[in-house]
Amino acid sequence: MRSSNQAVQTSKSIGAKRNAPPEEMKDLYLGTVRLLERLHRQFLELVEVELDRLKVEDINNVQSLILFHIGRDNLTVGELLTRGYYLGSNVSYNVRKLVETNYLVQERSVHDRRSSRVFLSDKGLKLYDRLNEMFDGQVQAFNEVASAKDLDAATETFKRLGGFWHTIGGITGRAGF
After folding, report:
1. Is residue 44 domain-shared with residue 91, that is, in the same domain?
2. Band of the pLDDT at 50, cuts 50, 70, 90?
3. How many other C-beta atoms are found inside a 10 Å radius of the C-beta of residue 56?
4. Do 137 and 65 share a structural domain?
């Protein structure tokens, strides 16, 4: 098992080893996947710490991110998926919980009763503003250790990886990267 330091070094060297031998490429590839998983968990933990600090106990970190991504928009539940705001399998459960805890308002469409739209309630807007402040602080702190160019490069690599997975998986019907 690699140490986390090795996994970080592995992910840094991907661009430099375009034609690496198959075993080395496999190690780089799987190390990058592990790093992505770990980064995602760390990010969710940061959100959880902020919710604890704000004494928000009626929703979890994933639900608060759904709330944040909705922001000031008025969306259908399907749009949460197609815009990439939520990637889990139980979006209906999480939306229902956000409605039950008064963070979201859900209204049936007047044109299509099968469809409903969601938007943030006043309570949801207050939490959105607090999360937005948290992200502003994180961006400011991150700007001290990395540049926009660094994030652009990482984003392009992750998009290529996502596009690759999309292609080899034969995934259809979902928005690509």
Report:
1. no
2. very high
3. 19
4. yes
Chain CA centroid to CA 25, Å: 26
C-alpha count within 13 angstroms, C-beta hemisphere, residue 133 = 9
Reported as type and span, the H/E element at residue 48 is: helix 22-53
Torsion angle (degrees, nearest 10) of CA 9, 12, 17, 18: 150
Indicate whether 113 and 170 sit together in one domain. Answer: no
Q: Report which of 167, 171, 147 is spatially closest to residue 159, judged by C-alpha positions.
A: 167
Number of domain units in the chain: 3
Within this chain, do residues 65 and 129 fall inside the same structural domain, yes or no? yes
Q: Which domain holds residue 7?
A: 1-53
Burial of 116 (0-12, 13-18, 19+ CB in 10 A): middle
Q: Locate tokens 């308002």: which residue?
A: 105
Identify whether residues 113 and 132 lie together within a single domain. Answer: yes
- What are phi and psi for residue 104, nearest 5 degrees? -125, 150
Task: Identify the weakest region by mean pLDDT among 13-17, 58-62, 124-128.
Answer: 13-17
